Give the backbone structure.
Amino acid sequence: MQLSRDELIESYRVMRTIRDFEERVHEEFSGGAIPGFVHLYSGEEASAAGICQHLSDKDKIASTHRGHGHCIAKGCDVRQMMLEIYGRGEGLCGGKGGSMHIADLSKGMLGANGIVGGGPPLICGAALTAKYKKTGGVAIAFVGDGGSNQGTTLESYNLAKVWNLPVIFVVEDNGYAEATSSSWSVAGSQMDRAKGFGMPAVQVDGHDFFAVHEAAGEVIERARAGGGPSLMHVILNRFFGHFEGDAMTYRAEGEIARLRKEKDSLKIFRTNATQAGLLEDADMDKVDKEVAGLIDDVVKESEKATPPPLEKLTTDVYVNY
Amino acid sequence: MSKKSYRQAINEAIAQEMRRDENVLVWGEDNAGGTGGDGEQDAWGGVLGVTKGLLPEFGPNRVLDTPISESAFIGAAAGAAATGLRPVAELMFVDFMGVCFDQIFNQAAKFRYMFGGKAVTPMVIRTMYGAGFRAASQHSQALYSVFTHVPGLKVVVPSSPYEAKGLMTQAIRDDDPVIFFENKVMYDDEEEVPDDPYAIPFGEARLTREGDDVTIVAIGRMVGIANQAADELEKAGISATVVDPRTTSPLDVDTIIECVEDTGRLVVVDESHPRCSVASDISSIVAQHAFKALKGPIQMVTAPHTPVPFAPELEDAYVPNPAKIVDAVKVAMA
Amino acid sequence: MTDSIQPIIMPKWGLAMTEGLLASWSVVEGVTINAGDEICEIETTKLANMFESPVSGLLRRCVATEGEDLPVGALLAVVAASDVSDVDVDAYVARFQEDFVPEEADDTGPEPESVTVDGLRLVYLKQGEGDGIPIILLHGFGADMNGWLFNQGDLSEVAPTFALDLPGHGKSAKQVGDGSLMWMAGVVEKFMSAMSLPTVHLVGHSMGAGIALQIAADQPQAVKSLTLIAGAALGDEVNIEFLEGYVAAKRQKHMKPVLQQLVYDKDLISPDMMEEVFKFKRIDGVIDGLNTLIQTNFVGGTQQGSLRDALSALSIPVTIIWGREDQIIPVSHTDGLPASVKIEIIEHSGHVPQMEHASRVNEIITATIASAA
């Protein structure tokens, strides 16, 4: 599927926004400005961008604890995301969700999720809604290699297949479940697992936007056409630890530096796009500059913004005690 | 109006809501009645037949069987609810919550709050509870206290067929996730139930009788047992108020306190275990807010802090009965 | 001599009643009672009420004890002349108890039926046979056919009776149109056509009386007599606190004072009766219907549209019955009515004399119907 110039620039903007957002959150978290747990998506941008490029608001996604990238790619407001991560009242969830629970149902984003493997069952339900209401929408569950070992994920493979749901399970395999290597913790292979459920599967280099985009196009098209669920095994890397503060001593010396040099999805995109004559460097330089300004602005605003008023503690839930 | 069983009352409420709102769907293990076999359709309707008859009327797009994968299909209910359906999912025995609890208490229960009020999760989880079926430790528990503890869930424990229909109707119309506890021993209990659809609001207790000497708060099937005890007590000249909270979350604290203020004594009857339970919760609320009205010690009549035993003699001794309630009232009155 | 021994048995108030609780005796053995005297209080699942003796004579035995639950037809008391020996009385009691078989639970007599007019399901209870001109009973705001449970049995000995659940009430459809008396009257007129009742006697209570009067005005040839009990549309006043309280109250403690305004004897309002009201109000569409009726007919506590003029134009027997202590619509609405209208004021009665003094009201209705012949 050939993307237009505008679509390519937009996809690059998504990836650049994710990268800058995450690098900046890393920086601000280190400085103590951001409370709580954050799990960063730097390095995995091509996966979220390549898949979500096919989606509109009627399509639903469920994300993971490492959810910022999926949120941005699905169209969540970056300013409100940053405010949420800062725990501000103007945040996307009013400051009550935080990094691990950013959601915007109006954009089809059913939430980052603090529970590994929490999303796939939900996405079966979202897909059933789409199927029953004949919206033409699809539903996508992102899980990591860690989440791929949860019973919820495997149960959902089965349910999605049995109910013939328009679901895509995306296993973003960044090589580590927290600190434990997927080479050790995953028995068999992701591809064989899908096969065991009678589900088509595709393995793709998650650093290459174009590869992800093409593979996603096929599985999403099949789901939309009523062909049932598929699995994407996306192989990629994360540039940061499991969470911020992770010293990453389980990773080889120099591993991160090598990945940043050789497996940077933004650099790979730029090279591929320019070599193919699709975009000029200047196009992307312009995006880089705009995004840098945006992230600067939202961080500055988030620093100054006010926390939620205390009375919000007991709203949005039934309380009478 | 006609006599209907607890089972029929629940079935009728679901059917009427399905007619009223095309977004109401039903799923669970064998809920459609056994999909895929060569025998009859609608064979079961859930293991005890509560959803029987829904498949022929509403078809396979609205009444679905599921694999035995509680995490997946209970979670699917949450995801479907957040995206525009009103699913009624069956978690067959509440004892099975252990295999899917995350989807209930971390996902469904929290969406509205975590997402800053921008999500609603209108789903009902129907589930069976209660001892008396000789079903032993993993098919007999009364675990509503566990769910009552979790903010974001509403917990319904209907005490009769009339109550079950009205509360199920409300449960389906409610925008929050509702755990609907059906006592499997009561499925064949009958009483007059209106044919018309009606909803009983949550958080409004019902007084099945009003007396002067003691307030007995009872949950679910225990309401009937408490009324039997109250009949016994009346013969001994003790008049009891019996309160059926209907929902343990929200809990009608005001009515319970008012009744205790009128009678000065409280006995709580609860089929679940005694620690960190609805019984201990109600006791603590009354101790906190109506201490000065109390003329005697609060009494709890509960199951013991043991798993549910199998041997009929042991199980019969496990569940609260009228005699135990009468004894507890006498202690409260002493 | 046993011919002169008369039993007093547990009455059957309404179809659903299978047993009653004898709450208390108001008389003692050895007194002479007259038919119509209140002799005991009986509680049913529907309501508590004073039971009026159906017979006159010397009360020889109070067989039932206070607090006792007894099936319909069970022996409550025995009346016999003073010259009947105690031995004969006791033998009578023993024989009665030996022979007594409670009616089967499913043998509940006539069942409500339904007919659909203009897409509205109307439920009614027919009691009584014969070729007399039928009597239609129209209940008031928030009530239903059960409001006539002390009356329909007696009246059905005169002619066939139809106790109707009005739209928005009981088991009938819950739509109330624009809520006007005229709309309601139109539905009842269509009911009469559907049931092939070209001529009727109408008995209406409160709002139902307003509807009855509207029907008489619409179709004077079809209505042979009119009995209006505490009727609407005869003056301006109405107790809006009652109406709004009835709709709003959700708990017994709030409902009790509201319903107590209906009656002279405040003890008549039982918890079961309140539960019946709650059950009614929970039915889908009921609250909307009641609110429409209030908005259209009683907004702000003023009755909209008097039908006094229509009353003057009628040439049929019209009787107006009112409880002296009515707190819902004041008895003063009987002032200044045309001389042709017979007015019966019932002492010690609130808004529901047909329940509080059923025998007297039944006599008045029967006499009104007889005078139309």
Summary: Chain C has a mean pLDDT of 92. Residues 113-371 of chain C form a domain with the Rossmann fold fold (CATH 3.40.50.1820). The interface with chain B takes residues 16, 171, 174, 250-253, 271, 275, 279, 282-284 of chain C (CB under 8 Å). Chain C is about 30% helix and 25% strand.
